[in-house]
């Protein structure tokens, strides 16, 4: 698609708290040092990493989960999709609520509920002394975890938008978004060894403690920026148009959905593919998935920094380039499936890094287009489609496998969506 789209001016007014030369003053009226914004970024990173360790970390234990709970491939897909399904359904709601009532209330509500849901799984839904809990009940509780934990996606990003000046928002949001693979790397490094050594009570106990730590940090230190609430009445007319009514923003968000299919092909069934088809040891697979997560986090931060230095330009171009390279990588996996295991694993790692590494500039672009007052809604839309892709991927893969083969999975769920993303992404806006 090549038609030119109309966008909001790329330079949005910064929040009052983010532009002050002296102390930064939050909505509570409390004065903070100029470095307080970095503390807010740290809280956002912690909250996002805690949730990411659950929704990206649990799939890295997919083989152990399947064995411990006696799951078929389709049952495993349902359990792995549960967290992302919950976030998919609630993310727009959390984003809108962030714009209306502020990030603090949203984060405290969502993270507290996430912690309680994970605590319930730890206490009642783990295999113990030969008793295997119902996978359907486990899926329901993980769905609830995702529905509540999805609050961190839009709210923590909006907090960063509010406290940072416009010329640093791309870098700051990229750092916050890098917490997703960072949390996934923590999950990939910690959860499989816990599952093998102590069982899933240790797995879910770790995730509960991580979520509790993030909850306490928000309660103790998070103050909202001056733009924390969307005005009502006559002042609302001066706000930018709702992101939900803008086709250019929808197109950006749709590309996020498409690119999530190859991403979660690697993160959900990548370990199953490498272990069952290429016979790669589980320990090696865990190391490879940590490498994917760490280097994708680096990619996210690098992309945000690089585009900030160019005035926020070239974000869409960078995502488009990533899309074409991702498509080439997954096509290579499909064509060379019978190659030595190290070749296939290398292709999967490189494709996974790129498939996980586009988020920083993507989130910065959609938040900038919407403006800081509407960033929560825009990020909620973005995350709804991101988690939609994460939800459907582990459900689609068993369906394709039942009628075809792994090369077809790599082509239909890896390469093809990446090509569609490159074609749907709008052109760069004309320079002012």
From TrEMBL:
The keyword Cell cycle does not apply. Its main location: membrane. It is found in: Cell membrane. The chain crosses the membrane at residues 38-55, 75-94, 106-126, 132-152, 173-196, 202-222, 249-274, 280-298, 319-336, 342-361, 381-400, 406-425. The lineage of its organism: Bacteria, Bacillati, Actinomycetota, Actinomycetes, Kitasatosporales. PANTHER family: BLL3282 PROTEIN (PTHR23527:SF1). It is a multi-pass membrane protein. This is MFS transporter. Residues 1-23 are annotated as: Disordered. Keywords: Membrane, Transmembrane, Transmembrane helix. It comes from Kitasatospora kazusensis. Residues 40-432 form the Major facilitator superfamily (MFS) profile domain.
């Amino acid at each position: 698609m090549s038609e030119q789209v109309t966008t909001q001016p790329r330079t949005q007014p910064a929040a009052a708290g983010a532009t002050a030369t002296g102390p930064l003053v939050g909505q509570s009226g409390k004065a903070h040092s100029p470095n307080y914004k970095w503390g807010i970024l740290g809280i956002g990173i912690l909250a996002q990493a805690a949730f990411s360790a659950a929704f990206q970390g649990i799939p890295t234990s997919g083989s152990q989960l399947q064995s411990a709970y006696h799951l078929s491939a389709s049952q495993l897909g349902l359990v792995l999709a549960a967290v992302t399904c919950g976030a998919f359904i609630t993310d727009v709601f959390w984003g809108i609520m962030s714009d209306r009532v502020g990030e603090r209330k949203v984060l405290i509500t969502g993270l507290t509920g996430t912690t309680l849901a994970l605590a319930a799984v730890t206490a009642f839904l783990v295999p113990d002394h030969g008793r295997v809990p119902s996978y359907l009940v486990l899926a329901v509780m993980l769905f609830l975890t995702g529905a509540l934990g999805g609050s961190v996606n839009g709210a923590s990003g909006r907090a960063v938008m509010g406290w940072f000046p416009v010329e640093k928002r791309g870098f700051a949001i990229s750092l916050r978004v890098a917490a997703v693979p960072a949390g996934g790397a923590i999950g990939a490094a910690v959860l499989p060894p816990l599952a093998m050594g102590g069982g899933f009570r240790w797995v879910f106990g770790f995730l509960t403690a991580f979520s509790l730590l993030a909850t306490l940090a928000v309660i103790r230190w998070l103050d909202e920026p001056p733009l924390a609430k969307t005005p009502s009445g006559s002042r609302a007319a001066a706000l930018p148009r709702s992101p939900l009514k803008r086709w250019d923003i929808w197109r950006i968000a749709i590309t996020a959905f498409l690119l999530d299919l190859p991403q979660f092909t690697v993160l959900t069934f990548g370990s199953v593919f490498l272990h069952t088809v290429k016979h790669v040891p589980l320990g090696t697979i865990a190391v490879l998935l940590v490498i994917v997560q760490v280097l994708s986090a680096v990619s996210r931060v690098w992309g945000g920094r690089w585009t900030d230095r160019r005035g926020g330009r070239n974000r869409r171009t960078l995502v488009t380039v990533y899309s074409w390279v991702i498509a080439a990588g997954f096509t290579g996996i499909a064509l060379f499936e019978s190659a030595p295991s190290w070749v296939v694993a290398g292709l999967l790692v490189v494709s996974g890094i790129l498939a996980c590494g586009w988020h920083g500039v993507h989130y910065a672009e959609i938040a900038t287009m919407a403006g800081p007052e509407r960033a929560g809604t825009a990020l909620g839309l973005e995350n709804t489609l991101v988690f939609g892709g994460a939800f459907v991927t582990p459900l689609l893969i068993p369906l394709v496998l039942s009628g075809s083969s792994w090369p077809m999975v790599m082509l239909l769920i890896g390469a093809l969506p990446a090509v569609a993303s490159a074609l749907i992404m709008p052109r760069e806006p004309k320079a002012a």
